[in-house]
Every structure is written in structure tokens, then in C-alpha cells.
Design goal:
- The complex is a heterodimer of chains A (415) and B (149).
- Chain A is 38% helix and 16% strand.
- Chain A is of the alpha/beta class and 415 residues long.
- Chain A has 2 domains: 7-30 and 306-409, Aspartate Aminotransferase, domain 1; 51-303, Type I PLP-dependent aspartate aminotransferase-like (Major domain) (Aspartate Aminotransferase, domain 2).
- With 149 residues, chain B is α+β, with helices and mostly antiparallel strands.
- Chain B has one domain: Sufe protein. Chain: A.
């Protein structure tokens, strides 16, 4: 531990300090300054990340774990160092961190290697009504093959998980539970520690989808107490095609491989093949080396700013944005959980989400519109689609003001 | 290219006051069109005989582009036969893809030419044609997922 005092904590968070690290934010869209409110879709990447990727390709391109020459050693060292960074990032031992191409890959890994061999007809998988398709469809595929069923824990009108119902649904037939940490549509922050505790008490493994949590709040998988934690690099200011699955060693050791090929083996013969230990057992083929090196740079960058500081600023910005949006006549907000991240899904009376988003784009504002890979959630709220503004630490109050003004202009045009 | 180039007065007018909006008593053909990506839904009812459309009405919850297109199409479709409509559909597809500049036979639909610059919104405009085509073909449902651009 460093003896140097953390001076940064004393200073108020100023996004203008970090915006220059993201040159894309200086772009103009349709003649207006870009206001990027779509970080939940993918985050912008700081220059250090882009540079790290480029440096690998320019200076030390080589395959990892497959060559003893200098370039191979350099690439391997840089790549495996990222595993240590990710492990520290979530407070886990490094051999429990499996590199994946993202959250979707991570959840599918658990579905095929953990759930598929275990589920029997009549068994159940419990998920919630606010899940992203990535934490619904893999389970559906597995249930189809095993005769197991999916059970859904309901949410309330504010977009909060009805915890009592979740607990009630944790019956002996449930063999696995899956919960999103932070909802990509509602911003709801779920009480995963409490849910994990309840699951552990009943011997039910819990998978947490941390895609929208990892970029915004500190993650400690030991403290959470779940069995699997999945997150993705491209929402964490890193390159696309990166991510990780954290899983307890006991599970990783018991799980058969997901993909087979090079790297995940110890020895291969046509008669018998033995597999590498976890985590490499689940990392077949040449990985997205440059991507992970970039992700390592992203994690370093975020840690240098401080996740607590980021979370604090975003909480403030969310409060301001919510207050300003609520003042817009005819605007309906979706997801007003007591604890939530800076994600604001909304609709304006009589205006379709796609029209909103297209017209906002003409004002320089980038939001997502559609079902946000959460059809069941849209159905719950009785809307075909919503517009969604998702904020990150590089967004400002001025941008929120401009966003609200732009909404006013769009309303005038369409209503 | 500004917002006004896509959301022209004509488009906004057809969106706010869609023509032929509602149910069609005594309809002979009907289909429900759906865009799963954004949730647009259009329900088209027709009176047609001998392959010729004599009336068209539509209902549904859809974005301005989809609604305006359906409204404009509903005025164009009347009095046209299968052949003429298929022709129109093909030309409209070319228009929104940017392969056609303007076409007099498309009348007000020419307003959708701007979609050449908004590829992601094209399916919104194509939904009405897909649904009409399904109705005339005897199918009861259409989806933009079946449209090949």
C-alpha cells in the first residue's frame, strides 16, 4: 500500500480533466458538438487504450504462449499481465478469471459447460424480468436440450426486483440462478449480495451479469458471494471482443471444456487428449491479444481515476439529469429504482423512440432507441421501444442541459 | 442533410394525420406487419378482387417514417393491381437504397429518398410495402426480418 496520500479524493470530480483523453468527443455531428449518451451500448476508448492496441501491432506482434522468441515472450507477458489486472479489478485469484470475448460468451460458457451437464427434466433456472437477452437465451437453449424450465422473478413498476418474490422462487427445483447486476434499460442496481447469500444458503449457484456494473462501480466478487460473474471489456472503455468470466475454482475444475482446440490442452493424441487447468482450459485458440492488452490499459486508466470517484460523480450527474428530464412535459421515465446507475430510458408522449433518436442525432445527441436487447422488459412496460440516454464520467451537466433543449426542439417538430 | 430533409412537412403531415387510418369493413385481405428491431406494428386491411385493390386502410403503432409511408401508400394503392404494386414496391426499394433519384409514379413517397442516408431506418419505410404484399399474397403476417436489402 502506498504511503502517498490520495489527494485526488479531496478534489471535486471534473470531467473536463478527462475529456481530452477521448478525442472522439470533439467531433461534430450534423454541425453540432457530439453529445455521446450511449455508453451503455459501448463506451468510448481513451487514447491510452488505442495506443496500447496499436503498440502491440506495431512493436511486438506475436502469438501468446506459443513461441519462446523475444516477441512471443513480450506478447505473452503483456497479455497475461492483463489477467492479473482483471483479477485485482474484481478481487479474485487470477486462475479464476477466464478471458472471453464478452459477457455473452461468458454466459454461454456457463450454460454449456456448467448447466448443460447438470440439468435434468423438471429442473429450473431462475432469472429476473429485467434481464438482457444474453442472460435469457443461453438458458433457453440449455432448457430445450435438457427438459429444464426457466422461472422469472418479477419486478415492480419502478423497475426494482421484488426481492421477496425472488427469494420465494428459490425452491429446491432451482439448480441455477441468474441476475443482472445493473440493468441496461432501467439502471436498477440489484442487491446482489443479498441475493447471493440467499442462493448460497440453499445451495443454488448464482451467476451475475456485470456488464453495466463493471464500468461504473467497484466490483468485489468475494464480497458479493456469487458463483459466476461475467463482464465485458467494450463497455469498460476497452476494445470490443474482450471480457471475462469469473467463476469459483471448484466449478471451473469440475466443468468440461466449452470450445476445444489449441491452448486449452495439456497433451493431445488421437487416442486421448488431456486438458489444461483452468482458466486456460476454457480459452481455446488464439485470443484477441491486442484487445486484451487494450483492456488492461483501460483498467489501469479507470483505476488511476478511481472507481469510487467515478461512481460519486455519476450519481450526481444522474440526479441532475433525472431532475431535468422530469421537467419535460409528456416525458415518461422508465426505471426509478432507489438504487440505480446513470441510465435513463424514456419516451415522450406520442413520439416513437426511433423518431426521437433520429432527430436527436441531428442535434448531435447520441442515444439508443429500440428494445435494448430486452424484449420481455419492453413487454412488461407495455411499450414497443424506448429511447435510452446512458451517461459516463466523461459526460457533463452542460451536455445534459443541451440534451433537454434538443428534446424540446424535437417535441416541437413532432407533436 | 438536416432533420428537415427526412422529416419533411409532407412526412410530418402524413404522420400526424394519416390517411385511410382505421378499420375497413368488409375487407377481403389483411396482414399484420411487425418490425422486431424497433417494435413498429402495422395492420393493413384491403378490399381487393381480381388482383385489384379497391380500398386500403391501416392501423398500428409505428414511428413517423413507417406511419407516413403507410399513409402515402394507402392513397397510391387504390385502383392498382398486383403487378403495378409489385413494380411500385421494387422502385420504392431502389429509392430508399439510394439507387433511384426520384420517380413520378411514387408520388409523395419520393419524400423517403432521404432514407438513402439513413440505412438503419429503411426497414421502417419498407414495413408498409411488406405488409401490403403479404396481405395480397394471402399471408397474414409480415416481418421486416424477411426483407433482403
Amino acid at each position: 500500500m502506498s504511503a502517498v496520500p490520495n489527494i485526488a479524493v479531496a478534489q471535486p470530480f471534473d470531467p473536463m480533466q478527462y475529456r481530452p483523453d477521448f478525442p472522439v468527443l470533439a467531433r461534430r455531428i450534423h454541425g453540432k458538438p457530439l453529445i455521446y449518451f450511449d455508453s451503455a451500448n459501448t463506451a468510448q476508448k481513451p487514447t491510452v487504450v488505442v495506443d496500447a492496441v496499436a503498440r502491440y501491432y506495431r512493436e511486438y506482434t506475436a502469438n501468446v504462449a506459443r513461441a519462446v522468441h523475444t516477441l512471443g515472450e513480450e506478447a505473452t507477458a503483456a497479455y497475461e499481465a492483463v489477467r492479473d489486472k482483471l483479477a485485482r479489478f474484481i478481487n479474485a485469484p487470477r486462475d479464476e478469471v477466464v478471458f472471453t470475448s464478452g459477457t455473452t460468451n461468458a454466459i454461454n460458457l456457463v450454460a454449456y459447460s456448467f448447466a448443460l451437464p447438470r440439468l435434468r427434466p423438471g429442473d429450473e433456472i431462475l432469472i429476473t424480468a429485467m434481464e438482457h437477452h444474453a442472460n435469457i437465451v443461453p438458458w433457453q437453449l440449455v432448457c430445450e436440450r435438457t427438459g429444464a424450465k426457466i422461472k422469472v422473478a418479477p419486478i415492480n413498476d419502478k423497475g426494482e426486483l421484488i426481492v421477496e418474490r425472488f427469494m420465494e422462487l428459490l425452491t429446491p427445483s432451482v439448480k441455477l440462478a441468474g441476475v443482472v447486476h445493473v440493468s441496461n434499460v432501467l439502471g436498477t442496481l440489484n442487491p446482489v449480495r443479498d441475493l447471493a447469500k440467499a442462493c448460497r444458503a440453499r445451495g443454488i449457484p448464482l451467476l451475475v451479469d456485470g456488464s453495466q456494473a463493471a464500468p461504473h462501480i467497484p466490483i468485489d466478487v468475494q464480497a458479493i458471494g456469487c458463483d459466476f460473474y461475467a463482464f465485458t471489456g467494450h463497455k469498460l472503455f476497452g476494445p470490443t471482443g474482450t471480457g471475462a468470466l469469473w467463476a469459483r475454482r471448484e466449478w471451473l475444475q469440475a466443468m468440461p471444456p466449452f470450445f476445444g482446440g489449441g491452448e486449452m490442452i495439456k497433451t493431445v493424441s488421437f487416442e486421448k487428449t488431456t486438458f489444461a487447468d483452468p482458466p486456460h482450459k476454457f480459452e481455446a485458440g488464439t485470443p484477441n491479444i491486442a484487445g486484451f492488452i487494450g483492456l488492461g490499459a483501460a483498467v489501469d486508466y479507470i483505476e488511476s481515476i478511481g472507481r469510487e470517484r467515478i461512481a460519486g460523480y455519476e450519481r450526481e450527474l444522474l440526479g441532475y439529469a433525472t431532475e431535468r428530464l422530469k421537467s419535460v412535459q409528456g416525458l415518461r421515465l422508465f426505471g426509478e429504482a432507489r438504487e440505480k446507475a446513470a441510465v435513463l430510458s424514456f419516451l415522450i408522449d406520442g413520439i416513437h423512440a426511433h423518431d426521437l433518436a433520429t432527430l436527436l442525432d441531428h442535434e448531435g445527441v447520441a442515444v439508443r432507441s429500440g428494445h435494448h436487447c430486452a424484449h420481455p422488459l419492453m413487454q412488461f412496460f407495455g411499450v414497443p421501444a424506448t429511447a435510452r440516454a446512458s451517461l459516463a464520467f466523461y459526460n457533463t451537466r452542460d451536455e445534459v442541459d443541451e440534451f433537454v433543449t434538443a428534446i424540446g426542439r424535437v417535441r416541437k417538430l413532432l407533436q | 442533410m438536416t432533420a428537415a430533409d427526412l422529416y419533411t412537412q409532407a412526412v410530418l403531415d402524413h404522420y400526424r394525420s394519416p390517411r385511410n387510418f382505421g378499420e375497413l369493413p368488409g375487407y377481403t385481405h389483411a396482414a399484420e406487419g411487425h418490425n422486431p428491431l424497433c417494435g413498429d406494428r402495422l395492420n393493413i386491411q384491403l378490399r381487393a378482387s381480381g388482383g385489384q385493390v379497391s380500398a386500403m386502410r391501416f392501423r398500428g403503432e409505428a414511428c413517423a417514417i413507417a406511419t407516413a409511408t403507410a399513409s402515402m401508400l394507402s392513397e397510391l394503392a387504390v385502383g392498382r393491381d398486383l403487378h403495378a404494386l409489385a413494380d411500385l414496391a421494387e422502385r420504392f426499394g431502389q429509392l430508399v437504397a439510394g439507387d433511384l433519384e426520384q420517380d413520378p409514379s411514387l408520388m409523395e413517397l419520393n419524400a423517403m429518398r432521404e432514407l438513402a442516408y439513413h440505412p438503419v431506418r429503411r426497414k421502417c419505410a419498407l414495413l408498409a410495402f411488406a405488409t401490403l404484399s403479404a396481405a395480397l399474397g394471402g399471408a397474414s403476417a409480415a416481418s421486416t426480418e424477411g426483407i433482403v436489402e
